[in-house]
Structures are given as structure tokens and as C-alpha cells.
Amino acid sequence: MTVLHTLSRLAGSPAALADTLAYLTPGSALMLYQDAVAMAAQPRFAEVLAPYSLFLLGPDLQARGLTAVLPATTVDYPGFVALTLQYDNVQAW
């Protein structure tokens, strides 16, 4: 089963994020939106996020004046909805 995990809050550290990501299975995708998009602008999260297909909500990046430095696919609101339809399950954290 494929799962899209969504994170809306900024993790305080890579270790705190790793605790959450421990529940993800191989092949999971991760969608960062709201304040969580700030993690994509910080290289310190690169190693922890590298194993996952990473998606970012573009309007949230723009609203915060951020640029992603991690490899990720930026989507708009319709793209976010399309992602939820591509996966068997959506898990919000």
C-alpha cells in the first residue's frame, strides 16, 4: 500500500523529524506544507528526508519567502489534491 504522509509543522531538529519518519515505510512519499516547508529550505534536514519522495506546497513556500534547497517537487493546490488521489492512503502528522 502506498502512503502519502503530510507534515504541517516545522520539526525542531533532524532528530525530532527522524522520530516521526520512523513510522514511514519504504516507498512512502512526504508532503510538506504550512510551516513544515521551512525544512526544505534548510540543508540540515537533507539526510533525514533523502529516502523519501518529497513534495512541497508552492504557495506556502512563497508566502514565507523561502526557496527549497532540498530535492523536491513543488506543487500547487490542485497538485496537492492530485497527490492525495495517487496514493492509497494519506496520513497527516
TrEMBL record:
Q: Organism source for this protein?
A: Ferrimonas balearica (strain DSM 9799 / CCM 4581 / KCTC 23876 / PAT)
Query: Which NCBIfam families does the UniProt entry name for this protein?
Result: sulf_tusB_dsrH
Q: Which GO terms describe its biological process?
A: tRNA wobble position uridine thiolation
What is this protein's record name?
Sulfur relay protein TusB/DsrH
> Domain of life of the organism in this record?
Bacteria
InterPro entries according to UniProt = DsrEFH-like, Sulphur_relay_TusB/DsrH
Check the record and name the Pfam families matching this protein: DsrH (PF04077)
* UniProt GO cellular component terms: sulfurtransferase complex
- Report TM segments: none
